[in-house]
Amino acid sequence: MEDYRGHPGTTRHQAWHVAHVVATILTPWVLAAYYWRSQPQTITAEAALVADFHTMAAIAASVLLLSTVLLRISGRRIAATVPFAVMWMVALAYSISQMQEYGGEFHCDDDLCMPDFGLFFTAVPFAGAVSFAVLGSAVISRAA
User: Fold this and answer.
1) Cβ burial 123-134 (10 Å sphere, 16+ → b, else e)
2) Domain chopping of the chain, boundaries
3) pTM of the prediction?
């Protein structure tokens, strides 16, 4: 991380950056744990779980996108780079599309209906990918 000593008002900025990095790592894991601990018993409950999951994910992606952009404006930082901003924009767009698809009344016209199938295969890998991206960002930032 960057050296903030001697600059007025930097303690607050440094705390914000640390909170941003922690939130960037923990948020996907918290959402993955929420999914894995849920126990929907019906297809309708699975659809509601997907809608709830993506509502929380959209809120988190919005906050992290805003934080990433504001931190990036003040300089290149760990987990506050253009690729992270793009990742949060894509996550936000995807979550909004999933909220629209599974929110409200859900009807399945297929023989095999698994609304949470996408979460099953993506929640933990996404959390892992974000964690590794933060570590890579830290290594690159330290080397620069």
Assistant:
1) bbebbeebeebb
2) 10-143
3) 0.86
